[in-house]
Amino acid sequence: MPAPKPKTAKKTVSNESKLAKLGLRTDMDLVLHLPMRYEDETKVVSIREACLHGGMASQVEGVVTKCEVGFKPRRQLLVTLADETGNLLLRFMNFYGSQVKQLAEGTRVRARGELKHAFFGAEMVHPGYKVVNEGAPLPTVLTPVYPSGEGLSQPILRRAISDAMKRIDWQDTLPPALIEDMRLSDFEPAVRLLHYPPQEVDESALSDRSHPAWVRMKFDELLAQQLSLKRAQRARRSKGAAALPVTGALSDAFLATLPFKLTGAQARVLGEIRADLRHPYPMQRLLQGDVGSGKTVVAALAATQAIDSGFQAALMAPTEILADQHFRKIAAWMEPLGVTVAWLTGSLKKKDKLAAQALIESGQAQLVIGTHALIQDAVQFCKLGLVIVDEQHRFGVGQRLTLRNKGDAEAVPHQLMMSATPIPRTLAMTYYADLEVSVIDELPPGRSPIVTRSIDQNRRDEVIERVYAAALEGRQIYWVCPLIEESEALQLQTATETHAMLAEALPDLQVGLVHGRMKAAEKQEVMDGFSSGRIHVLVATTVIEVGVDVPNASLMVIEHAERFGLSQLHQLRGRVGRGSAASACLLLYQGPLGGVARQRLMTMRETTDGFEIARKDLEIRGPGEFLGARQSGQAMLRFADLETDQWLVDQARDVAHDLLHATSADSAATVEAHLARWLGGREEFLKV
């Protein structure tokens, strides 16, 4: 008889690691993990009274008179609760076997939830409940409900937070004079009230976060952020960077060979960048400009200043298509002037990659253009003076840090970040307090306005006719397929099917297809075919979102436009209107539209102004998602809201300035204590 197999212990994930996944690693992290809402378990009403207020959340207490597992229309646990005024059904769609025993007949239960009048009478679906003894006291404070994660129940979180509150040092990080001057609540009472609000608290002020306890938390959070950013700016200015003072032969020749004159906005922005590059501390500038405003030529001119001054420049873009567009355009400008431009992406053959790395390390490559491949360990620069990051919000903070750290140990390279997603002023002031911001707020002359229409997809045949008519007039067309976040394979299938459908519907036209799964060479072949005019219609996934520049393309069709974010729709639309022909963008949507999707499409129809679109986008999405905060792994602002708390942002900025410029040891200690409490060593991520 074979020996029995030894039992393997089940892997259990500790509560500590589950808490760590939420970013709760220290006692102070737990204490500052504040409730997102509250439940009032301080009152019990009779079942009859709860029935009179159907549709509202209420708490009842009674004895279980029946507990059974039903199977129609699906398996569910049905528990009948009774008090002296009536009966109530508690319905659980998902339940454990232990709950059947726990809720046995005769058990006294307190249940809380929204009461509904169903076919068989009053019921609560999935209520919260507790088994209690008769006469058990009610809580005297509201019950907090915390943001949670997988495997973390509310009781576990409540216990962990309660234990942490017994261990931490409650000393206020702000001086009493400042607290009094700003009429702020003291730290400990504010935190305790938010975790355990008394019955008499103003619940509406708690829920809309206008309560003085919330104001203190928001101010502290904003102050920590402003202190960190301003300190990062000061630290940056104290660091050495190679001054790049020369705008010499290359810069002059480059400007002289351009077939167009810089716009006033481009010239102004270039002046700001050139002045920064002359400083012996690192530039950290954000260059904003709407799609088509001419950021690339300004970046190339910044690179000429680095090269004229004897240094290398590097430009990193988030996608190979965008990096390739930059390479082709900038190399065509630079190489005739004797500049060696290296090209480095992940898809290069090993031999080509090694050759590019050798050019970079030796310093022969004066300008390096590529993707994330630039930040790999194998890439060593000889004398890196300027780093340019395009579409900077598409990179994680860690990636931007790695590229910045490729410079000399003694001298940090200057950094120019570019974004075609304009950042509203309030956001720039809050999140980019240590950045200088330059804005190209003028489009080059000769750009045609883009007319935008939203069209129900039932009218697809009319759209195809319009595509055919545009092609007959010698124009080219983009047809963009929907973004399907859940599945790249599904997105690819949609693009392939759309390509087949259009090729069949338009047999006289050349219909091309480009998507993210294609090899770089195949992708490039299709893009070249479109750029040269051989391909009339280009079916694409969102790989063409940025960087593609085909002046003859004047019609953009975006399929399932309701699935795209505002910023992405605006970026896609920016691929047309680059020539002199009247251009149009057709947003095909599938009804019925939700409120947010309707708002987005209406904004797209009403304006082509990137800053107005960015403002609307911020309203719809909130700052964290707008800035790509999730890529950094850091929460942006957990408590403060930029729309409603701008007055607090201004106060926090002023206080941060005063604390950092005060010469007393007390001010320095206040800054350290406050940052330790609120950021706990996570400051590095705010520096890029």
TrEMBL record:
Residues 276-440 form the Helicase ATP-binding domain. SUPFAM superfamilies: Nucleic acid-binding proteins, P-loop containing nucleoside triphosphate hydrolases. InterPro entries: ATP-dep_DNA_helicase_RecG, DEAD/DEAH_box_helicase_dom, Helicase_ATP-bd, Helicase_C-like, NA-bd_OB-fold, P-loop_NTPase, RecG/Mfd, RecG_dom3_C. This is ATP-dependent DNA helicase RecG. Gene3D superfamilies: P-loop containing nucleotide triphosphate hydrolases. One of its GO terms (molecular function) is hydrolase activity. Belongs to the helicase family. RecG subfamily. It catalyses: ATP + H2O = ADP + phosphate + H(+); Couples ATP hydrolysis with the unwinding of duplex DNA by translocating in the 3'-5' direction. Its EC number is 5.6.2.4. Pfam families: DEAD (PF00270), Helicase_C (PF00271), RecG_dom3_C (PF19833), RecG_wedge (PF17191). It comes from Janthinobacterium fluminis. Coiled coil: none annotated. Plays a critical role in recombination and DNA repair. Helps process Holliday junction intermediates to mature products by catalyzing branch migration. Has replication fork regression activity, unwinds stalled or blocked replication forks to make a HJ that can be resolved. Has a DNA unwinding activity characteristic of a DNA helicase with 3'-5' polarity. CDD domains: DEXHc_RecG (cd17992), RecG_wedge_OBF (cd04488). Keywords: ATP-binding, DNA damage, DNA recombination, DNA repair, DNA-binding, Helicase, Hydrolase, Isomerase, Nucleotide-binding. The keyword Transport does not apply. Residues 473-619 form the Helicase C-terminal domain.
